[in-house]
Structure formats: C-alpha cells, structure tokens
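Translate structure to sequence.
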C-alpha cells in the first residue's frame, strides 16, 4: 500500500543517525517514506529507495535554507563536493573527516570542439580530475559516510572497474577494510588501481550482472553482515553523490542550468541523479526555472536503454555486453526505466555509438581540447557528435557533455596508432633530416 509522502514507515534501524538534511528514504515507485537505514528496496512494493529531504516531502524551509542565503553558504564552502553538504545526506562537519574530498572538477569551455561539431556553446565537465580519476569518487564519498554511520567495518562493491578503485582508495584513507568485486577481463589499469591501495580485489568469472547478483547473495550471508556495499545496501546514499555533478555544472555556469546535458549510462544512476540535482536547484531557488534536455549515451555493444528508447518501450530488456567501453558494460541496468522517463520528459533521447565511433571520439576530444578521456568519455562525445549531426541537438543551444573518467585507464583502446612521430639521434642534423621543412 502506498503511503502519503509525509507518513513514515518505521524500520528496525534507529532514527538517531546524523544524515544532515535527509529526513528518510522514500520509494521511487509508491512514495512510502522509511527511516534512514542501510535499506534499498521498499517493503510495500519492492521499488528502489532514494534519500528524501524536507524540500522533496513538501515540508517548510527556513529562509536561510533557500535562495541567496543558501547560495552564499555554498560559495563559502570547501572546493570539493562538501560545499554542497546542506543538500546531501551527510553531517554538517563531513569535510573535517578523513576522506578523499572529491569534486569541484573543471568545467572546460570547449570552443575548439564546439567549432568542429558546429555548436555555439559547449562545455566538457571533466571528472577525470577526481582523486582516482573518475566520477565514482563522488558517489563513494557519500556511501563511505553512510558506512561509517551504520558501523560497517568493510567497504565493498560490484564494479565495472572505476568504482573498485574509488572504493579501495576511500577505504584506505578512512581506515576501513575493503573487498571489491569485478568481472574478470577488465582493463589492466583499473585492476592495478583497485589493488594498489592494499585492499582485497576479487575477479569473478562472469559479467558485471553476475558480479552484482553475487554481491546481493553476500549481503544475505553472515560473511557480508558488516559490509557496506556502496552500490547495493548503501545505494540510496551512493546515488546522491551524482547530484553534485548537477550542482557544480550549474554553479560553474554562474548559477544557470544548461540547455542540454549528455550523460553516459551504465546502471543509469548518474543520469537520474543529475536530473534530481537540477530539480532541487530550481525548487530551492538557486537557479531560475527553465527547460533542459537530458541525453543518455551508451555503447552499441551494450545499449539496452538506447534500444528501449528507440523502440518506444518502457521496460529495458537485458543484453550481454560486448564493447570496449567496459566501464559502461551493464547489461541489466537498475535505473534503465527511470532514464527512459527522464529522457522523454525533458525532450532528450538515449543514443549509442559503435566501438569505432568511441575511439574516434576519444581522439577528437584529445585533439581539440587536450582532454584524454576513457572510453566512457568517448561514448558521450561520440553520441553528442551523432545528435548534432542528426539535428537532435540545437546548434545554438548551450550544451554540457560529461567526461567521467581518465584515458590512462583505457590505454588499449587507443594504443594501436600510438607511436613517436620519429625516432632520431640527439642532434640538430638528425632533426633536420627527419623534418626537412620543419613542419
Ligand atoms: C567512467 C564511468 N562513467 C559512467 C558510468 C555510469 O554510471 P551509472 O552506473 O551511474 O550509469 C560508469 C559506471 O561504472 C563509469 O565507470
Ligand atoms: Zn514502494
């Protein structure tokens, strides 16, 4: 039975935790409101839970919690995601605790790429600048706080690679144990990163979806009793970290929303939370209300959400991934149906590009803007290029495209054509011989 959004279903966990402004967990399907706890599914309808705040439950807000006063408080905060602590499920003193303090990455004005694509205004939100070189540091930072609050001694996850590195690094800094799970056969750099922090890294024979199922089993076993799986039993908190991308984009544009955002989709969590972040900014009077379009980007070798979008379906049929964009290789995306809703509601779309187009786009971004993206960034830039070419992105609109990870993690994708222009002896004569017209 669905409950009114201000009624609360009491769960077995205590309500005395300090989660800052968060007031509970609400079901995305039926709206039932629960106490804050390490829970992720509604006991009424099995819908996914997400963090609820006074502004989402229609409660009164004080004058210093909205508009100019809130903006001033944010602007005087640290240069990390913690400047947005008043909008996140974390205690007010979160920045004083040992963590990797991710976020506040560059919003690069990409005039060269814009010119090449025929766009008037384009920015790249470059999350390769995070501590472990992907956007996953944002989500892990919030999940880590929740893990500490609930008294978990081990941080864990199912991962397509980037999350594994972010979790093991965050656990190292916080002094927690970690045990992370990846599908065997990931990129070498991601395996090195996840293991260098001295934590347990377990490769599972199977796809990401097999890994995720295994982690759900572990939670139900005594082995996993005190484990915080950042994207399973801590998923509602973890997911909130992606809102900080929406906040930063708006603040870095001068407290404005862009017209279009192009976002990579694996589980779809990041895309849904960027939309939630934009909605909150409007509700809290931090930006002016305006229409914006959200576009999801997938690799053709793992494009279940794009396929559903194109077919006009509301359900997402799982696929078996086969793409070089391994970080996006989730064949059964938990948030797929919500991605479809958001793309349709905002007038956006979900599109996909082939592996060849991904590699081309990695080169294009590097050549035009000096940004070396991992394959996931190739997916977003490739999809952007396709959307502009098809006339689905207005060339006069203001667009932001996300690069969520660092190209050094997926070197194999571009290493085939990488070699020195020439190899010469250290002498001027040798240089002149190799480049006779010095060009
Ligand atoms: C680099 C990168 N970008 C984007 C994503 C997509 O995230 P989500 O699962 O929230 O859709 C991932 C997921 O692993 C990733 O590693
Ligand atoms: Zn429900």
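Result:
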């Amino acid at each position: 039975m669905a409950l009114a959004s201000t009624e609360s279903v009491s769960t077995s966990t205590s309500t005395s935790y300090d989660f800052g402004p968060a007031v509970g967990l609400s079901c995305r399907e039926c709206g039932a409101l629960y106490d804050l706890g390490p829970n992720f599914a509604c006991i009424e309808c099995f819908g996914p839970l997400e963090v609820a705040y006074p502004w989402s439950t229609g409660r009164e807000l004080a004058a210093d919690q909205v508009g100019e006063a809130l903006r001033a408080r944010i602007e005087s905060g640290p240069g990390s995601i913690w400047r947005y602590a008043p909008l996140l499920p974390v205690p007010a003193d979160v920045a004083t605790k040992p963590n990797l303090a991710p976020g506040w990455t560059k919003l690069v004005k990409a005039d060269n790429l814009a010119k090449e694509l025929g766009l008037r205004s384009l920015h790249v939100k470059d999350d390769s600048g995070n501590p472990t070189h992907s956007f996953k540091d944002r989500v892990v930072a919030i999940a880590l706080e929740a893990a500490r609050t609930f008294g978990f001694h081990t941080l864990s996850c199912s991962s397509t690679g980037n999350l594994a590195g972010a979790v093991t690094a965050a656990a190292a800094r916080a002094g927690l144990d970690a045990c992370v799970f990846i599908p065997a056969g990931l990129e070498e750099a991601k395996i090195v990163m996840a293991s260098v922090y001295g934590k347990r890294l377990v490769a599972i024979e199977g796809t990401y979806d097999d890994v995720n199922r295994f982690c759900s089993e572990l939670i139900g076993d005594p082995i996993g009793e005190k484990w915080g799986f950042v994207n399973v039993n801590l998923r509602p908190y973890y997911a909130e970290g992606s809102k900080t991308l929406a906040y930063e984009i708006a603040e870095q544009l001068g407290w404005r929303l862009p017209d279009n955002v192009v976002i990579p989709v694996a589980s779809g969590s990041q895309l849904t939370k960027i939309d939630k972040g934009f909605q909150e900014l409007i509700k809290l009077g931090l930006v002016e209300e305006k229409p914006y379009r959200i576009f999801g980007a997938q690799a053709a070798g793992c494009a279940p959400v794009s396929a559903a979008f194109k077919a006009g379906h509301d359900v997402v049929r799982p696929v078996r991934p086969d793409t070089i964009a391994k970080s996006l290789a989730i064949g059964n995306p938990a948030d797929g149906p919500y991605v479809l809703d958001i793309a349709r509601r905002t007038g956006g779309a979900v599109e996909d590009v082939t592996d060849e187009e991904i590699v081309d786009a990695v080169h294009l971004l590097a050549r035009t803007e000096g940004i070396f993206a991992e394959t996931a960034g190739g997916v977003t830039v490739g999809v952007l290029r396709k959307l502009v070419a098809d006339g689905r992105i207005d060339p006069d609109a203001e667009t932001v495209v996300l690069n969520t990870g660092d190209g050094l993690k997926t070197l194999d994708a571009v290493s085939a054509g990488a070699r020195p222009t020439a190899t010469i002896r250290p002498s001027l004569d040798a240089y002149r011989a190799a480049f006779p017209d010095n060009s």
